[in-house]
Structure formats: C-alpha cells, structure tokens
Predict the 3D structure of the following.
Amino acid sequence: MTFALRKPWGWGLLALGLCQGCGGDEHAPIIGDNLVRNGSFESGLDGWWDATNSEGGQASASPEAADLGAAGLKLYKGTGGWGTMVGQETEGHGAWATLQVQARVRGAVGGEQLTFSFHSQGFEVTAEDRWRTVTRLLLMTEASDNPSAIIAVTTDGATAYVDDVSFSPAQVAKGEADLTPDNQVINGSFESGLGLWTFWTNSFPGGMASTSPDAKHSGYAGMVLARGAEGTLTTVKQTLTAPVFEGEQYRIEARVRGANGGEAVNLCLQINRDPWDGPCIHEKADREWKHLSRTVTIDAAMHDERVGVLLSLGSEGSVQVDDVVVLRTRSVR
Ligand SMILES: [Ca+2]
C-alpha cells in the first residue's frame, strides 16, 4: 500500500516492522496517532468549526457533556434542517487507507441519531442514555490532501454528548480475499470493517451486520450477518467497479458458517436496478466453514449492466461470512 502523505502518520516504524513473508497476517488493526486535535474538548471547541441549519441548533463544549475530564461536546439539533455538527480539517491520506473512528457517546434521553464522517465515508450511531464506546473502521476510496472529520446530530430536538474522539489511521490485516489476485471485491475479507459494503434489512428487530474476530475465516476479522423473526432478508452488497457483458464468466465465492446450521444464505451477482435479478448460490450454512463457489455466465438481460455482489440471509438466525471473491474467468472484449 502506498500512502501519499503530507506528514508521516506516526506508525511508520510499525509499518516497517510488519512481517513480510512471515506467513499469516492475522494481526489486530494497528492504530496510529489521532488525526484530530482537542478530541477531548478540554480546550472548548478550539480546533473545531461548528455549523447548524436547524432552528435553535447549537454546538458547544460543556461540563455536562464530559465523560472524562472537565468538558465534552454537546450537540443540540433544533427544528428542521439536516443537523448540527462540528468538524475539523486533518492531514491527508492515500487511497485505500483504513481509518478507525472511536468516541464515547451518550444521548440526553437515548435514541438520538449521530453521524461520524471522514472525507465522504461515514456511519450512523444511535445514542443510548448512558456512555457507550463507538469504534468503527472506514475505508477511504480515494486520496485526500485535506479531509474533514465531522460529527453531527440529526434527530430533531435532540441533545447528544460526545467525548474522547479519535480519527486515526489503522493498519489492517490482509485476508485470503485481499490476497487473491484480480479479486473484484474490495475489502472482501472484512478487515476494514464494513467499509465499502452497503447494509440493508427489512427485519426489525434483529437484522444487523457487523464485523468481529470471532467471524474470521482468514485475516483478523469476518462479518456477522443476522436476521430476526420478522421480515425476509438481511443483506450486504458491494457494487463492482466495472460493468459486465454478455458471455463473460465470473466465479463468485465466499466462506460461510452458521451459528446453528441450516441458515439460508444467498450469494449473488445482481443487477444494480429493478428487477435486481442475477445468478445466485442458494445454500444452507453448516456449523463448520463451507466454501460457496459457482461460475456464472452473464446473459443478455445483464449485458452492459453494473452489478453488485450481494450476500443475504433469508432465515432467522446468524451466519458468519468471510473472503468474498469475484473473479472474471472469461472475457469477451
Ligand atoms: Ca477476514
């Protein structure tokens, strides 16, 4: 990986010390220096800009928002508009850099929606009425010289508290999917969390996706996909960068393991629009790792379409997924 940085990120020595050819790359993310200044808000909002487009919205540093120390960030969103936010510009990063976002978060009553974002990548968090630690990995799809770290509350009339914020570069392991030449799936081994994967479910409560070391087949982490008793599907999907053409062949692969066995897993190449059709592997998971693999041919209906690789769970329960691979095994152009 090459980083085009204005300044070193502080883990150069660690990066140099990473094993090369030492057989296996299963280390936990190595977290570098915090890119934001005054992430504990002990110096008020020094270093942060603030903005709101809601009536009465306000960002402030306040003792009531402190989890540790004398102050924390208090974000109040008034009525209307998108939200109330603070942000700060940080030093740059290269393409495909992984970033760890960590913060302590609490809502005044619970249920408040917050977003954390960094150079167009981000995630949402629902606050509880007690302090919780939020830790996520983001995967940067492009380099930036002056990215912004932004924290926002987006629930009308809501107050949320944030303390001890860090946005830090993370050196992550490489799993089998990352080491498979010409794999069209990025972060297919889930080493950068759910970075680049889009989550969707109609199963509430219980539909969720996350990553965990317990779910790894290779590398350090894998994905946990769960569906509740209600609804039909929980899915994660990633759009491939290149469209597909009639007559091309692709091999789609994933490693899957069920919590109980018998869970209904689907691995598909799917057109990126209605009717969302495409070839799939439909398989029942075992308690042991199963290697799903199928070579599919692109038909006329999918010709010159953008497609996504989709993993879905169609029954109640939970499965672990790792090492998603899509390889073009026959070209027609
Ligand atoms: Ca993995």
About this structure: The first strand starts at residue 30 and ends at 31. Residues 1-23 have pLDDT under 50 and may be disordered.
